[in-house]
Amino acid sequence: MSTPLVYQFRIKGHLDETWINWFSPLVVVVNEENGEATLTGAVRDQAELHGLLERVFDFNLTLLAVNRITDPAE
After folding, report:
1. What's the pTM value of the predicted model, to 2 decimals?
2. What residues contact residue 74 under an 8 Å CB cut-off, 6+ apart?
3. End-to-end C-alpha distance for the chain, whole angstroms
4. Helix, strand, or coil here: 55?
5. Is the pLDDT of residue 71 over 80?
6. Helix count and strand count (H, E) for the chain
7. What is the Cα–Cα distance from 20 to 25, expressed in whole angstroms?
8. Per the omega criterion (within 30 degrees of 0), is the bond before 25 cis?
9. Which pLDDT tens digit goes with each residue over 36-68?
10. CB-neighbour burial class of residue 43 (10 A; exposed 0-12, middle 13-18, buried 19+)
11. Cβ neighbours of residue 26 closer than 8 Å, sequence gap 6 or more
12. Backbone CA torsion sign across 22, 23, 25, 27
């Protein structure tokens, strides 16, 4: 893959500021009104995507959705 793709991960529950370092370089939006956290950012390849998903599961977080953002300007 030559160009990183942008992914959005939705996590059940609120994440505090300490999670930002664990999921860098993704942007963490915490304490959304719907009780979810959203992590968004560029993923270089399938190996990096797999690593991020493993991290979610290793931290025993509930993954609600993973979406590839085809137009980040939307």
Report:
1. 0.84
2. none
3. 23
4. helix
5. no
6. 2, 4
7. 8
8. yes
9. 999 999 999 999 999 999 999 999 999 999 999
10. buried
11. 9, 39, 40, 41, 52
12. negative
Tell me which amino acid residue 30 is: V
Give the single-character DSSP code of 68.
E
Contact 28, 20 (CB under 8 A): yes
How far is C-alpha 44 from the chain's CA centre? 13
Look-up of token digits 């793709």: 5
What CA–CA distance (Å, rounded) separates 3 from 14? 31
Domains in the chain: ranges and CATH: 5-69 (3.30.70)
